[in-house]
Amino acid sequence: MTEPAIRASGLAKRYGDVQALDDLELTVEQGEFFGLLGPNGAGKTTFINTLVGLVHKDRGTAEVFGFDVEDDYREARDRIGVAPQEFNVDRFFPIIEVLEHKAGYHGIGRKAARERAEDALKTVGIWDKRDTRFDWLSGGMKRRFVLARALVSDPDLLILDEPTAGVDVQLRHDLWDIINRMNDAGTTILLTTHYIEEAERLCDRVAIMDDGQKVEVATPDDLMARGTDTIVLDLAEMPRTAPRLDVEGITDIELTDEGLAVTAMGGSQTAPAIMRELEAQGHTVTSLDIRRASLEEVFVDMTRDDREYAEVSA
Amino acid sequence: MNPNATQFLTLVRREILRFVRRPYNTFLPPIITNALYFSVFGVILGSRIGEIAGVSYLQFVLPGLVVLGAISDSFENASFTIFHGRWNDYIQAVLTSPMSNRSMVAAYVSASALRGIVTSLLIVGVGLIFTSVPVANPVYLVSFLLVITTLFGGLGVIGGLWASDFDYLTVMNQFILRPLVFFGAVFYSLEVLPAFWRNVSLLNPMVYMVNGVRYGMIGVTEIDPNTSLAVLTGTTVVVLSVDYVLFKRGYGLAE
Q: Which residues span the membrane (chain B) (predicted)?
């Protein structure tokens, strides 16, 4: 039986009064493109740092391809490439040497390390900057470089913590292409992002975390199906007040400038019953538009509490 | 090549390149400082002091200056590279790699010891401009230098893990190491001290290091070199063990 790429069980970590990870249970299968969503402080980065050895867990287990991240840390870390959110790059050396060093730390000999470094820089499109130091790269190039460093050891598990934070649209799409190619080639991807659209477009499955726990794991489509869709109906003659509709799944009905707006779970399944009910009441439906709940709306619903969600804006 | 060896050699190479490529920060200062020491203490003052232990004053202080340079630079190298890596988080590239904790410690200490030895050679080179440099007991000389630089490389690792600001590095080097060395019989013979202060001086570990290197160079010592070497070697093993435990526990490195 194939070991999952990541398996966390009862994983806990506390910082003072803050329970950063609270008996987290999570499994990521090999080859998956897995998204980790959650508001600030949800425990995403703590979880990632536990996998790579920068955080020591209080209890529970975490395994990478079946290797315990503490007892078998060498085997586990050899399979991981990580691109952290914060830049943590050696400023003393040109970037190609930084990559050679990283490859060497993974036991790759000098000649092969050089070739890996060159390939990684070409993959992310900053080969011509190979002799430049990190500080002198532009913001977008820095993001590319951090990805190159994660790739240079040819990892089986690529962990990307906010890989497109603060980059322009073009670069974001370039990075998506690179990451997608890695995933197509069999690399498991663990992605944390504040860009919900990113998770929607890229991820096979998404885990929503909050307060150090997993709230839900599902495909983006499944999650969105759990949200409330809005069905906007244009009627031949708009009534003065919103009609009462006895259809299961409806949570709200209101008249808007656009028409009759019906909020319902599973808009596609509910729409025919709504139309039949309206026609039974003597209305004529001239057009219908189903606006699906976005993953962002589902995300906010699932993690809603008293905190601010300033960073969750699309 | 064995992956373990590749990992170790990569980190050693990275550390060596870091200090070799910045000679104005790493090698020029001890050259200039020691040229000044030799000029002032050796030539200007030394000519009035005469011989100590059968050698010129310049030859007498040379081993102490070699020790001063060796331990300062080996300590500074390890403490700076680890603290700077922590400060800027780039040490995480090493920590998240499959390198063993033992390899990490060995690499940081080896590179730091090497820098201390290179500094020693540079100081000897500067000394050659002013006087002849005898090597009475080369095996002892090499052994003491290896142990001393390894010991202070190991202590530098502890310092680099402990420091939470650059001020800590200054405090350790300037306010602890340097006074100990200056009162470690670099510039004087223990014989000139009153009995009380001579006994107090024997509590200073630097005295044993200076005397050991002095024995290696001019063949004169006030303390049994074998005892000194054994104690220093034992201390070095203890310090390296502490380094390993700190890395394993992630002290200063992991949350």
A: 27-46, 52-71, 105-133, 139-163, 175-197, 229-247
